[in-house]
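Sample pair:
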Amino acid sequence: MIKYCTKCLYPETKPDLWFDDDGVCSACQSYNNRPNIDWQAREQEFHDILERYRSKDGSRHDCIVPVSGGKDSTYQTIKLLEHGMNPLCVTSTTCSLTDIGRRNIENLKSLGVDYLEISLNPKIRRRINRIGLKQVGDISWPEHVTIFTVPVRIAVQTKTPLLVWGTNAQNEYGGPAARSDDQVLDRKWLEEFGGLLGMRVSDLAGTEGIERRNLIQYTYPTDEELAAVGVTGVYLGYFYPWDGYVNALYAQAHGFETYPNNVEGSLGDYENLDNYQTGIHDYFKFLKLGFGRATDIANNHIRRGRLSRSEGLTLTRMHDGKFPWIYLGRPIEDILAEIEVSLDEFIQICDRFTNKRIFVCDNQNNLVKDADGNLTKLNDDNVA
């Protein structure tokens, strides 16, 4: 049986999560420590960092902001504009961009920023989508890599040292620019935080006709190139009390568009609106770890008193981990067709990455599914 946090709904299968003697997870403990944080001092620290890296003569941008056009990157951009910064917003084109995603990108640009979009070779990217799905169970692998590599490459090319990301796992780390010692990024740091999931970019060369020259935008600059510019970065979520729901409200007040319905597999209308493949990505998280996007959102609400734990559990039972037959109105067959994967092949890949320690199996150790292909967890809460 899987152990769950006694305060929220995170299971012990979540990477880098641990429990105290009362069964409270480290994510809840981190949140409970927020009242002890001097947020005014942290905001001043953030202001000081911005002043340190602000262009003194206006000959370059003050910082680079990796963006997707989603609620969080819209919030990041607004906060930097409030600090009087002149950011260059940079994105690597989303793998399967939605119409609402494009509109939200246009809205972000309308806030009054310079915006640079790098469109990667779509033929190569689709092959990498397929490789990521088959090899590490992540259809969004190229997107997770290039949201780091592309902005860092632009930082080197434009000689703009400071990058401002949104948040890291527990918001306990301000980023290299907040260190008192060596503040320059290196490839080791980037590869630790850059979401490679154990699959190296160099391994792709020679696979499915991919050549090294096709992978330029997927690779980081050398340590020498990074050091020459002094490239560094900060996480905004360390300096402000990060809350995805509040970020969404903040973004909406500045023109961000939400979905007209609850997003499939979620508990709201404001999350992951830019990419049709996200439903598949979140489903694989459920298969591997036993929880998905709905649990993440429910936990954020539970910690802040907007939901009780029992209410959150009821909602996650309704929305988490359903087979992704449709996402943002697009059928799964159409989404898979873009990367030349059939539905039958997809189901086989799903079964291969499913953690059978979490789900009900028959006496032949085959996964038990209902008529819609949905799995049943052995337990979705602590068992007395």
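The two ends are 11 Å apart (CA to CA).
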